[in-house]
Specification:
Strand content: 15-25%
Oligomer: single chain
CATH class: Alpha Beta
Helix content: 40-55%
Shape: globular
Distance between the termini: 20 Å
Number of helices: 5
Largest sheet: 6 strands, mixed
CATH superfamily: Beta Polymerase, domain 2
Order of helices and strands: HEEHEEEHHEH
CATH topology: Beta Polymerase, domain 2
Structural class: alpha+beta
Length: 142
């Protein structure tokens, strides 16, 4: 199994589980595929400090890189008020608590369906993808 073969819903779940792994709060997975053409899912979460915002973002980036996924773009890492990670069909927004209420993406997207995350299953899927990638690299090295 490769990272590219994972459906966008599963990718959103993995990203949400990684955010929870670093104690992010207020997690929401929003299905926006019917309202926008730039993404299928938005993952929204908050953190209590700018440093925690950066830690959550770095954790997502690092773990997904092990699985072979790299963001198409990232913004806000230096300031830590609002970090945006663009993975194509899934966009992650990590807010410092005050910034989340100020920008109110929750209100803007209030009408879209939200999804729940099965943290254990999502992290297990990520580990499976990473293990498959490691095996592919071993085979390629031989």
């Amino acid at each position: 199994m490769s990272a590219n073969s994972i459906e966008s819903q599963a990718k959103a779940g993995i990203m949400a589980a990684l955010a929870l792994d670093k104690k992010a709060d207020g997690l929401k997975i929003l299905k926006v595929s019917e309202q926008t053409s730039y993404a299928d899912y938005l993952v929204l979460c908050s953190a209590a400090s700018e440093r925690q915002v950066q830690a959550v973002a770095r954790h997502i980036i690092d773990e997904l890189r092990l699985a072979g996924l790299r963001p198409l773009g990232q913004e806000g890492m230096d300031q830590g008020h609002w970090v945006l990670l663009d993975y194509g069909e899934v966009v992650v927004h990590i807010f410092f608590e005050g910034a989340r209420s100020y920008y109110d993406l929750d209100g803007f997207w209030a009408e879209v369906p939200s999804e729940t995350v099965d943290e254990a299953a999502s992290l297990a899927l990520l580990k499976e993808v990473i293990a498959a990638r490691v095996e592919e690299r071993k085979d390629a090295a031989l």
